[in-house]
Amino acid sequence: MESKIIVSALAALAQESRLAVYRLLVQAGPDGLAAGKISETLGIAPSSLSFHLKELTHAGLVTSRNESRFVIYSAHYEQMNNVLAYLTENCCGGNPCIPVQFQPCEVPNK
Amino acid sequence: MESKIIVSALAALAQESRLAVYRLLVQAGPDGLAAGKISETLGIAPSSLSFHLKELTHAGLVTSRNESRFVIYSAHYEQMNNVLAYLTENCCGGNPCIPVQFQPCEVPNK
DNA sequence: TCCATATTTCAATATTAATGGAAATATGGA
DNA sequence: TCCATATTTCCATTAATATTGAAATATGGA
Fold it and tell me: Which of A21, A54, A70, A93 is the most buried (most CB within 10 A)?
């Protein structure tokens, strides 16, 4: 059931706080941001943010890495591309006519 | 609050039945499909489908038109483009570097 | 080691959403 | 007009999600 993970990704973004977090991480790029910095920037309580970051992570939209005492979160573009591909799949009877892509600026289209 | 309508669009898609409906309408293209045909194709009870179609309509993702006794639903691509634009906004500090677009095949990129 | 910082987990509450059957509404054909 | 078809509305039940404070866990510096 591929649709399950797609639904979870869409559900993860379908919430004010998480949408703001995701956009912030898209803007931050591959360097990412520490959880505390996100909490501070967006004014979301740490425990609440932790819950939302887990949702985004489980949906595959963000990844995290440990750096000293910090946990750095960053956007995971591949998953967004999976979502877009799923939405456009079989458009016009199977011939994908609209290449929709979502990539970090640091990795321009080749 | 632009985020409100974006969240509602994402929430509309973040549900198995509605995601299936939306994809079916993307595949159907501008001609669209009657509510009954959607119900039959996807095996969703009419009352349930009506509820979901309303959600998709309120989110701006689909539109409907009356044709005789039928109500024909079709995907409204502009709203999907709004969602994609919102997600990529300010990526890399304000310079949109990734033109992401979602269009019906009948209206190719010019 | 001990403490401050960073983040997550837990628990309780409140809100919102999904479902299908029955009834209501609307349209077109006999 | 009357009936069959097409869709929506209403209702009741069931389930899932968001929130915050307090406690737990983990890491690094003094």
Answer: A21
- Comparing CA positions, the residue from A22, A56, A21 lying closest to residue A39 is A21
Total Cβ atoms within 10 A of residue B100: 22
pTM greater than the 0.90 cutoff: no
Q: What's the CATH class of domain B3-85?
A: mainly alpha
Is A29 in contact with B92 (Cβ distance < 8 A)? Answer: yes
- Domain residue ranges in chain B: 3-85
Nearest protein residue, CA measured to C1' of C29: B69
How far is residue A84 from each of residues A47, A80, A98, B9, measured CA to CA in Å?
31, 6, 10, 14
Is it the case that residue B95 has pLDDT exceeding 90?
no
Disruptive mutation site among A2, A6, A10, A62 for chain B (greatest number of B CBs within 10 Å): A10
